[in-house]
Amino acid sequence: MWPHHHPLLPKEPYERALVRFWAKFAEEKGIAFWMFAQTTGEEQAKAKKDSMEMLKTLEEHGNLGNNTFFGGEEIGMVDLAFGSLIYWLQVIEQIVEVKIFEANSFPRLYKWFNSFKDVPIIKNNVPDQNQLYLHFKKYRNRQMEATSA
Domain range holding 75? Predict the structure, then answer.
């Protein structure tokens, strides 16, 4: 029943391949967000640059077009992959006190993300960002202490 009502992948083979490409892109390039959170100095500057490049690529070449979501008017796999990354990125930005994901730099992605997080199934099921902040801040502090010891 579920795959017929809300499929994560399109039926057309070419469209399915595009979705898989972008999901893999999120998996491979999203690591830069975590490196941005867990490093300082030159390493963090490189991770910030890599994160910005990933977002720029998605902004310029992602399959949004005039659609609300990457797959059209319904949430799909690409939206879930990037939506979770950007949700965490906002927490990371608060912790390291450096902004990456801004409306003026990534207007299409910013609009998409606001639409994504306002969908009731997403809105009602994402973890509270304040709780994530508190948890991840403690984690990052322990990581920083361990690397400086």
Answer: 11-148
